[in-house]
Write a structure and sequence with these properties.
Blueprint lengths: L2 E5 L3 H9 L8 E5 L6 E5 L1 H5 L8 H7 L4 E4 L2 H16 L5 E3 L4 E5 L8 H5 L3 H9 L4 H16 L5 E5 L2 H9 L5 E2 L5 H5 L11 H9 L5 H5 L3 H19 L16 E11 L2 H22 L2 E11 L4 E12 L2 H14 L6 E11 L16 H15 L6 E3 L10 E3 L22 E13 L8 E4 L10 E15 L7 E10 L4 E7 L5 E7 L1
Parallel strand pairs: 2-4, 7-8
Antiparallel strand pairs: 1-6, 1-7, 2-3, 5-6, 9-12, 10-11, 10-12, 13-14, 15-16, 15-20, 16-17, 17-18, 18-19, 19-20
Helix pairs in contact: 1-4, 13-14, 14-15
Length: 521
């Protein structure tokens, strides 16, 4: 087995700079603790050049550099950065172990066939040099591709490859990256390192120190049975690790069902515009991660941490999956304007529930079809203006009344594979349905059921319905929900007026009122 380790040095600092990339070139420190107990945990290169080191108090650091920018450790930034790092690793191998704190292990056994093209493009000198060093050229190419992929999401990374997790981790921690340990050379690679790199338990470390051991190689030369007899199962695991053998197999993690991005704010925000600025960057990182996995957002949840205590949670259901940052930001802004949190915002967390975006097969000969992703983005923008409950596809309801309908999600069927010929029928009439229905005044005589009609709604000026009934067809009875407290009982007629129009009218049997609900064109 070949194990690759992705290691992000100074991970709390790298995670914070990923959320605030404008601070990359500044003198920045990450502190741990509160008040006077706050101490420097990590610092950028510019700050380290001024003598700032881990363990200094915040006052000591500012005495060395007054213009120092200090940020507290942000658990949300670190968690989302770790998830992004794991997602990059999953794009290379399906077996990935999340080791936490900017470290990921992945099994790269059998991936050489995916990098044959990269190897064939290498120069003969580079390939020969790679063989001289004792490792395959495809592993070096994979490591370089991984470094470029992780750097695109804003994290610096080092890569180490070996046959065990310990050897791969130590190789990844070296300044020169990537570092590849040749197969079978793990024990000699680990031998000169101190025993502290094995991170033994306190009792085991004291026992090994009493034995006079100082390096991993000295422990590996001892008989395994004797070490296990004196130190137990933990001693056996230490001996295996010293020989370059993993005491435990790789433990693949289960992919998370959603994507998260958030951070703690340096100062509580009391207005919407500053929050929109930081939310835009978070949504941009979120959509890039979903695009890497081939997903789009179908539901966006926002949790605001309020000052001093409390939370404000909102959820936005999108009519169609989308990755458009502007659309997601507009929906978030409109929702917060309608539902303000009511207190200063000290932190936030976006949770995107993913779904596969719609795909369409384009035609070589017909007109260009609409892009499903662009259609989804347009629908989401319309929903932000008119409301999500007013956008969708009309659907039928189990009932007899023609005006009853429901709004379903917009999910159009794919276009037909071949062009359909139009119908050749003649004499077909289309009904232009009126919503809402227009009330009528009907004057009848004993000889004629319907004598004259005149519309009563003054707002329907464009529908000047009036005239004597020339032809009437009906009635067609409609009865619905007779068992309920509000049953529906109507008589429908098709009438042609002397003014030339053909209409569909009905009478409510309960009160005798007349309405027109359709015009035949």
């Amino acid at each position: 087995m070949r194990i690759a380790c992705f290691f992000v040095p100074l991970f709390p600092l790298a995670a914070r700079l990923r959320s605030e990339p404008e601070l990359t070139a500044e003198a920045v420190i990450i502190t741990e603790g509160n008040g006077s107990a706050a101490r420097v945990f990590a610092a950028t290169r510019r700050a380290r050049k001024e003598g700032i080191r881990s363990g200094l108090t915040l006052a000591q650091a500012r005495a060395l550099l007054p213009k120092l920018i200090a940020r507290a450790r942000d658990a949300e930034c670190e968690r989302t950065a770790q998830e992004a790092l794991v997602e990059i690793a999953e794009s290379f191998s399906p077996r990935v172990e999340d080791a936490g704190s900017g470290m990921v292990y992945l099994d790269i056994s059998g991936l050489e066939r995916h990098f044959k093209a990269v190897r064939s493009r290498m120069s003969a000198t580079a390939e020969e040099s790679s063989k001289d060093k004792g490792h395959a050229a495809w592993e070096h190419s994979l490591a370089q591709s991984a470094i470029h992929a992780v750097e695109r999401i804003g994290l610096p990374v080092r890569v180490g490859i070996a046959a065990s997790k310990l050897a791969a981790r130590i190789a990844a921690e070296l300044p020169k990256s990537p570092t590849i340990v040749p197969a079978g050379s793990e024990s000699s690679f680990l031998a000169p390192l101190p025993l502290a790199r094995l991170t033994p338990e306190l009792e085991a470390a004291e026992m090994l120190q009493r034995w006079g051991l100082s390096s991993i190689g000295e422990l590996a030369q001892l008989p395994e049975r004797e070490v296990a007899a004196r130190l137990g199962e933990s001693g056996r695991d230490l001996h295996w690790a010293a020989r370059g053998i993993d005491p435990q197999p790789l433990q693949p993690r289960q992919p998370l069902p959603e994507f998260r991005e958030g951070m703690d704010l340096e100062w509580p925000l009391v207005s919407l515009e500053p929050f929109v600025f930081v939310a835009n960057a978070a949504l941009d990182r979120l959509t890039k991660r979903m695009e890497l996995q081939g997903f789009a957002c179908t539901r966006l949840e926002l949790t605001l941490r309020l000052e001093p205590d409390g939370f404000h949670s909102r959820a936005i259901d999108l009519p169609a999956p989308t990755r458009d940052v502007k659309t997601l930001l507009t929906l978030t802004k409109l929702d917060l304007e309608a539902n303000p949190p009511g207190a200063p915002v000290a932190g936030f967390l976006f949770v995107a529930h993913p779904d596969r975006p719609r795909r369409a097969q384009l035609s070589l000969f017909g007109p260009a079809a609409l892009s499903p992703d662009k259609v989804a983005t347009t629908i989401a923008r319309i929903a932000s203006m008119v409301g999500a409950d007013r956008v969708g596809t009309p659907g039928v309801v189990n009932g007899h009344a023609p005006e009853r309908f429901t709004i379903d999600g917009y999910d159009p069927p794919p276009p037909p594979p071949v062009r359909r010929q139009p119908r050749q029928g003649r004499g077909l009439l289309a009904v232009r349905v009126l919503r809402p229905v227009v009330p009528l005044e009907v004057i009848s005589t004993p000889a004629v059921a319907l004598a004259s009609i005149r519309s009563l709604d003054p707002g329907q000026k464009a529908l000047d319905i009036h005239g004597h009934v020339r032809v009437a067809s009906g009635p067609w009875d409609l009865e619905e929900a007779w068992w309920s407290d509000t049953p529906t009982e109507r008589e429908y007629w098709d009438v042609e007026l002397s003014t030339g129009g053909v209409y569909r009218v009905f009478r409510e049997c309960a009160n005798g009122e007349w309405f027109v609900d359709g015009i035949y064109d």
